[in-house]
Amino acid sequence: MAAPAVLLLLAFLIVPVILGFVLSFTNARLISPEPTSFTGVDNFVRAFTADPTFFRSLLNTFAFAAVVVPVQAGFGLVLAILVNQKIRGAVAFRVVFFIPVVTSIVVVSILWKFMYQPDGLINSFIDSITFGAWQGTAWLNNPSTALTAIIVLSIWQAVGFHMLIWLSGLQTIPGELYEAARIDGAGSWRQFRDVTWPCLRPTRVFVLITITIAALGLFVQIDVMTQGGPVDSTSTLVYHAVRMGYRQQQIGYGSALSLVFFVLVLIVALVQRFLTRDKD
Amino acid sequence: MTVHPVERVLRRRQRLWIYLAMAGLAVFFLFPLVFMFVSSLKPDGQILSDVGGWRAFLPLGDISFRNYSGVFDRVPVGRFLLNSLFVTTVIVGAGLVINSMAGFAISRLRWTGRGVVLSIIIATLIVPFETIAVPMVYWVSQLPTLLLQNGQLVYDFGWLDSYEVQIVPFIANGFSVFLFAQYFSTIPTAIDEAARIDGAGWFTIYRKIAVPLSGPAFATVAILTFLPAWNQYLWPSMVVQDENLRPVMVGMQYFFQDNTAWGEIMAYTSMITLPVLVVFLAFQRAFVSSVAASGVKG
């Protein structure tokens, strides 16, 4: 009974993983007059020594993750604590905060690109709250602001998801613990630090790992909004892998770049195993 | 327990701050979408002139559905919607059957190799699709396919530009199998044994006992597989060139690239956002518990 699922996973997940590994060491092209041949580690040498865009993409990917992981996790936790209060309307707010998550990221990218136009909504808002003191900038056309602009909308879109994960963690904490802390005279901050935070440990690991893996895989926003520009300031690892592997049809080289991404994800997953191991 | 009057005042004040914070956040999360829906009803000139004030968020002035009919005149968006609907339905539907069967086999049946299969399925959970997208293009371009040509079945290679290339790779899902296996293992095995004694085969037990008892698991998997299937972008943008087979998300990107008419672009994005939003609001409780379930593995 497991056969259909196992066969499909084999054909469309395990074989592609192995194939990607093998292709990384070849000069395979999608359509090529010459036969594919093994080229050893040439693709990796090329990536790390002769492809400045790859290096820039790697840096951008790390920069994106370095901001998005803590901000999105922290913001998600704040939202979860707010909607976890026993007050009327909390459920309605939870629904509202989750709405961007069910909106397609392609839609979100197009919408925010429109709002980031030089004469768009964001700049006119900045203009009106600073009474014209600051006119804003062409956010996506400026190499020093483009990645930040993408970070903002990425968090806006995804944070509701992690709010819910945090929330389900918060709801597993028994109320008696807070009761006991209150009797011991602990204020809100002490209750958070000594009860909530330690109890959220498993949730915390899960949230951080899922955000990290998603952040390292940043692609759609780049493809729709900037195509990696201006001057590679928003090119990311996965975007570059797709650009080389598919658009320029260098399957071998693209596979090698994808493998670099996969190794990063594996490292993150191993860190997760390490972090969740020591508690039992 | 009586509450001291001072504390009650403090609590009320605290609640006021919480409401203010949540209202501010609600504005932050909603304003882009309100702007999108409102702009989709306005002519381009008015969208730009309204951007400087509150009118950007209000359906005032020259309001009409002209942008929507403009989209339909320009691209076969109805066809794109049907394509996405078809692809999504098959992925979700076939996925429910195949993954629940695998989950059943793993949690209820004893067979050699079960442990190996389970650990392989769990290992697949850490492979993000982006890592295999490029080799997968190469792979599907080599796969054999049967074609009907002049009334004859012929062999050909390459799955590019087809429905199957958008559907088949996404039916089996390790996480769905895992969720089903977890859910099925909560059904008491005594039921199986009684049914076995009555002469029921495993497939009958799956169909007549496990499936009817597992409504929540099916709902969770359906919700968790529906959104990514509907939102597919990277994969179809690589393997589907034929406009007749194009799903909505890719169709929208092409429309966006060839167009500067923001009113029509906003109409297009509104059109594909609204159905999902309605489904979400109708089933928000189920959505919320599904997402919570997806965090359980942590």
TrEMBL record, chain A:
Family matches, as Pfam families: BPD_transp_1
Ranges of residues in domain ABC transmembrane type-1: 58-272
Record keywords: Cell membrane, Membrane, Transmembrane, Transmembrane helix, Transport
Membrane topology label: Multi-pass membrane protein
CDD domains reported in the protein's UniProt record: TM_PBP2
Keyword Kinase: no
Compartments (UniProt record): Cell membrane
Transmembrane segments: 62-83, 95-115, 146-167, 205-222, 251-271
Family: Belongs to the binding-protein-dependent transport system permease family.
Name of the featured protein: Sugar ABC transporter permease
Lineage: Bacteria, Bacillati, Actinomycetota, Actinomycetes, Pseudonocardiales
Automatic annotation (TrEMBL), chain B:
Record's bilayer topology term: Multi-pass membrane protein
Protein name: Carbohydrate ABC transporter permease
Organism the protein comes from: Lentzea indica
Entry-linked PANTHER family: ABC TRANSPORTER PERMEASE PROTEIN MG189-RELATED, ABC TRANSPORTER PERMEASE PROTEIN MG189-RELATED-RELATED
Chief localisation class: membrane
Gene3D superfamilies: MetI-like
Pfam families named among the record's database cross-references: BPD_transp_1
Protein location: Cell membrane
Family affiliation: Belongs to the binding-protein-dependent transport system permease family.
Residue ranges of domain ABC transmembrane type-1 in the record: 81-283
Transmembrane domains' residue ranges: 16-38, 80-104, 116-140, 167-188, 209-230, 265-283
UniProt entry tagged with the keyword Transmembrane helix: yes
UniProt cross-references to CDD domains, sorted A to Z: TM_PBP2 (cd06261)
Keywords of this entry: Cell membrane, Membrane, Transmembrane, Transmembrane helix, Transport
PROSITE patterns, alphabetized: ABC_TM1 (PS50928)
Keyword Magnesium tagged: no
